[in-house]
Design goal:
323 residues; alpha/beta; elongated; 41% helix; 15 strands; six-stranded mixed β-sheet; five-stranded mixed β-sheet
């Protein structure tokens, strides 16, 4: 049996249109020629695929079976050819994502799920790291996307070839043990905690959160006494829940710590916010990365219309705590 791709392609179009005239127009061939091709295919297979009359065309049970089972393969063939032609080289089949842990826990799973729906055979690599390292990986084109905590000085550090999208901002809150005397409050003046010891952030790896904590305390009228600096989010959570210091933390980070005995308290008379941004190298963005960015532009619970404007981020920008 020698069934050609072309004859099957003709059958698939007729099965979709159920009209020889419309199918012939889409295939750019004559209607008699198309009819002959379908007749030849039925003869080759020894199976009747279509019921034809002067008024309509319908699929036989065998034709319906063939159409349904060939459709995914034909879609994949056409998509593969299109991707190869558009890329001019071997198209992207994997996506590499460097991310801070907070984005790894909420945004990245949503993104991967949506990408798998569009690209079932996609492979992905996820690296949890600091914002500094994530930005470096994208700058070097070793990774396709990086989720970082948005730098405070973004406007001063932005430049091509990196671009970014900023997601919704989250308020900074006091994070302390549920056993702490202040845990009964839902809102607190930070000055009331001036004698507490703070778990601080590393100024090199977490400059944004470092700055926010420093700024908050100085605005409240005191310099924070620190007991330690630089641990990752789960270490911070364990230290706080055991009553070893307090800290300030954005709401999106705090939402990851529901299983810990930590109370989040809003700041009174002080509004500070932090956000996550995704960055990518805008030089020859491959198809799957473009699809990922399109998905992120419509992320339901994390983006704001005002922030979803394409901007650029310098490779020299400082990174963040792996939050």
């Amino acid at each position: 049996m020698q069934v050609s791709y072309l004859s099957l392609r003709y059958f698939m179009e007729v099965a979709f249109c159920l009209n020889f005239s419309h199918a012939a127009q889409k295939l750019h061939i004559s209607q008699p020629g198309l009819s002959q091709q379908i007749t030849a295919l039925e003869k080759e297979l020894g199976i009747k695929l279509l019921n034809r009359s002067t008024r309509n065309v319908t699929l036989t049970a065998e034709g319906d079976y063939l159409h349904k089972n060939l459709l995914p393969s034909f879609d994949n063939i056409e998509k593969t050819i299109m991707q190869l032609v558009e890329a001019g080289t071997v198209p992207q089949t994997t996506i590499r994502i460097a991310t801070v842990p907070s984005a790894a826990s909420n945004m990245v799973p949503y993104l991967i799920k949506k990408l798998k729906e569009e690209h079932p055979l996609i492979e992905f690599y996820i690296k949890e790291t600091t914002s500094v390292h994530a930005a470096e990986l994208v700058q070097k084109s070793e990774y396709d996307l990086a989720f970082i905590r948005t730098p405070i000085d973004l406007k001063q550090t932005i430049q091509p070839p990196l671009k970014w999208l900023e997601f919704s901002k989250h308020p900074m809150k006091v994070a302390l043990s549920c056993q702490h005397p202040a845990a009964v409050q839902d809102e607190i003046d930070l000055y009331e905690l001036k004698n507490e010891t703070f778990l601080h952030y590393d100024p090199k790896h977490s400059p944004s959160l470092y700055y926010l904590l420093e700024h908050a305390c100085l605005t409240a009228g005191f310099i924070p006494k620190t007991i330690g600096a630089g641990p990752e989010i789960l270490t911070i959570a364990n230290l706080i829940s055991n009553g070893i210091g307090i800290t300030l933390m954005p709401q999106d980070m705090l939402e990851l710590l529901n299983s810990y005995k930590i109370k989040a308290i809003a700041l009174k008379n002080l509004s500070l916010f932090s956000s996550i941004s995704v960055i990518w190298n805008d030089v020859s963005v491959p198809l799957i990365t473009k699809d990922a960015l399109s998905i992120l532009e419509h992320l339901p619970h994390y983006t704001t219309k005002e922030s979803m404007k394409s901007k650029t981020l310098s490779s020299q920008t400082v990174g963040q705590h792996p939050s």
